[in-house]
Amino acid sequence: MKEPLRSRYQHFLALLDRGRTPYFVSIGLIVLGFTLVYLSPRSIPAFLVFVVAASSIYWLKLNRAVQLGLAVFLAVVLVPILGARNVFYLEVIFQIAVFSALALGLNIVVGFSGLLNFGYMAFYAVGAYLWAFFGSQQPYLLHSTVTTKALNTPFFLAPDYFYLFIFLGVIVAAILGLILGLPVLRVRGDYLAVITLAFGEIVRQLANNLDKPLNFTNGPQGITPIQRPTMPEGVLKLFNQVIQPVVGHRVTDNQAYNILFYLIALLVVVAVIVITYRLDDSKVGRAWTAIREDELSAGAMGINANKLKLGAFAVGASFAGAMGVLFAASRTFVSPETFTFLQSVGVLTMVILGGIGSITGVVVGATVVTLLNIQVLQSVSLYLSQLRQSDAVIPIIGFHWKYLSNQLDPTKYQRLIFGVVLVVMMIYRPAGLLPAARRKRELGGGPEGKDLDGKEV
Amino acid sequence: MRHFMGSVNVRQIVLPLGQMAIFVTGAGVLCSAIMLILAILFRGSGADQVLRATQGVGILAYTLDSLPQVLIDGVTIGFVYAAIALGYTMVYGVLQFINFAHSEIFAIGAFCGVESLIALNGLGVMAKASAMGSFLYLGLALLIGMAASGGMAVLVERVAYRPLRSSPTLIALISAIGVSFALQDIIRLVESMTSGQFYRVIPTFGNFDERINLFRIGAKVIDIQVKSVVVILAAVVMLVALNYLVGSTKVGKAIRAVAQDKNTAALMGINVNAMISLTFLVGGALGGAAGVLYALKFTRIDPFVGFMPGIKAFAAAVLGGIGNLTGALLGGMVLGMIESFAGAYLGTYTMGAFGAEYKDMVAFLILILVIVFRPNGLLGEQVSQKA
Q1: Which residue, A321, A308, A322, A320, is CA-closest to A279?
Q2: Each residue of A412-428: pLDDT tens digit?
Q3: pLDDT tens digits for B37-57?
Q4: A185 vs B contacts (CB less than 8 Å)
Q5: Residues of chain A positioned with their CB less than 8 A from the CB of B88
Q6: Segments making up each domain of chain B, as ranges
Q7: Domain B18-373, what fold?
Q8: Quick check: A50 and A34 in contact, CB under 8 A?
């Protein structure tokens, strides 16, 4: 029964890729998805159709130019329109972009060079606090105690330094990555993982405690307000003139900012993807793989493992640093709560779910986990609370929904979900949902291949 | 009687007791000496002047004054860390694998112990319990915590680690992290569904909060809480029992054989899987008991209570030399002392710039420094350079 089904599925896929069909399918899906989301901005199925439409551009066999054109049109025109109509989706997509960049950065460390890093959020935190400190009034408050009230002091830097700080974030995080990477030269395997965990916790605790002797981070209360870059003059007006009839209401300043940050995040993600893609097949990328598979042999082949491992840490960190700066500006608020071990493991879950070392896989993993986190779980929670208020009864066991504990709120059980995903993936599919091509070859069985279970194949 | 004495290896009981005495006094004396030297060096400093202005004592007198209490705290928490660290180190010795979920095994023990005490309290038996009775109830809670933790540890090994035994260590480590996270939320889920509360507080019973006067220096009385004595005694008994189990019984010999070479051990007729399960059972039970003791000492627990003690105990295990049972004891003691000293004096010596909140960071720093500069730990045994 299994074979015919699979062959029928493959037949169907082949049909999709024949002649002009993919063009029709892809464009049709985009139109359908856009219309659905436009008409019912709050429905999840509609959004999922939209996501499928977006991914169809990637999966179907289209002309490269058409692919690119469709993707740009979708990302730069359609999404902002939908986003202006319902900001929530823009937030979802923004978060997907942020976590994709983070996951891709972690993927370089974990996936390409095989160094487990549990403290990855530290770099994100450094980027975020970098702009949080210089982009707020905090430098003037070094000698004052923790305050939460808005101050009359001016901001330290002009808001447009933000763009510079994205690059500074890259540099500072990379330097920190090198510092954290130093133990890499001596320690391997699980000990390295523990060191990175300790490092991540140290950074978080510093953020938590550096409100004295000098008030750098404002302690657990975090820094706010942080400046956003200035909106270019007239853009909002232009945007409103062109788009208002489509959106159906005036686009406010905040909504415009959401769109701006979405576009910047998009730019960063595209840059990250291009860099990762280029690295993967470069000499460096191959050297990383060699180190991951067998460090001794790699050394014997003349690869300077120390240098390359440090490099992996630095590159991975730099992505997180850039995203941190962006995050701080978009939220106008940072606090140590954002950079916990839970978040580091969350990013690791994305990498592992999608497929260690696979760029597409990692982006898919980030998308799935983010959607799960901020959309699916929330709607399940909402549904449960509706059930709780209703008189519904589970038929067979006769359980009244209204007696369901208030504590049972799926959005609060991220750890459970991350944990189960990690364990299940490790046991059944250690290479991830969409394994990297190289891993697939390995798992398919080469003459001297070793699969991820460590067994000879 | 004679037969019994012949079969019990007395040396295996006296030796670890001696080791403990040496470690406790050694770590205590060393830390106190360093502290006193620091105090002498800090005389006349800003911290000294602040103390003279506010409390009317010099820094040396201040340090000397609080030293005994700090030492007692350090020993108490050191024993708790040692008991947890043994779980890490046993598993590492047998499987060369960091059982990251051990911190949640610890938390499960704490919860089951506290829940059973709360249940007993609800029945009203504890209010009228005699001193002896309250110790019995505590012992019961300890047993329940140990059983729950040991059982959970075995289950976790069976479900999440055994299928991955031949995988690279990193795969198993990720699985362990997953288990750790899942267990945290499962505890929270169960707690919130049954009791509707996030925190649980151990009921007050017996005379555990009273203080015993140890001795007096001049007008100052040095005392110790009954519960600290209980924690220390229980930990000592468990550590000795463990040492005896591993060192002088047939089962212990089998565990050591499996740790050395699984294949050869299997050829000698040892059931390797059973021995690994047993390792998890014993390590988990120790962790569970440590959890109940921790709850007794610090009274309040929450589902994430395991993370910090867990990571510190792991640091202790690494500090002592992971895979080495004596090392775990030494590491726990040293770490407990350092943490206690850091918590007590850091704020005063830096004039409030770095307070007691940095004591967690001290453990992390020690962990990093030890792994980087002396990965074999103080006593050394296992090699860390394996991927």
Answers
A1: A308
A2: 788 888 899 889 988 98
A3: 888 888 877 778 888 888 777
A4: none
A5: none
A6: 18-373
A7: ABC transporter involved in vitamin B12 uptake, BtuC (1.10.3470)
A8: yes
